Amino acid sequence: MAFDKKLLDIVACPVCKGKLEYDKEHQQLICKADRLVYPIDDGIPVLLADKATNWQESQE
């Protein structure tokens, strides 16, 4: 199942309520303000703060 980019208009970072960016290659959503990355599992974003990883760690 593919992620529907229209969801970006209605989802927000659960920590800061800021805008998220879609990383198609890694299937994740990125909050640049908090430097957090949220995974997308089977087309569904997992927007739980405890499931987020550090943005720099995910770039390695």
Give the N-to-C terminal Cα separation: 26 Å
Q: Report on the biggest sheet.
A: 5 strands, antiparallel
What ranges have pLDDT less than 50 throughout 5 or more consecutive residues? none
Shape: globular
Order of helices and strands: EEEEEH
State the helix count: 1
Number of strands: 5
Report the helical percentage.
under 10%
Percentage of residues in strands: 25-35%
Category by helix and strand content: mainly beta
Rg calculated over all Cα atoms: 10 Å
Q: Let me know the average pLDDT.
A: 91
Secondary structure layout plus pairing:
Blueprint: E1 21-23, E2 28-31, E3 36-41, E4 44-45, E5 53-54, H1 55-59
Antiparallel strand pairs: 1-2, 2-3, 3-4, 3-5
Explain what this protein looks like in three dimensions:
With 60 residues, the protein is mainly beta. Helices cover 8% and strands 28% of the residues. A hairpin with a 4-residue loop joins β1 and β2. Strands 1, 2, 3, 4 and 5 form a five-stranded antiparallel beta sheet that branches.
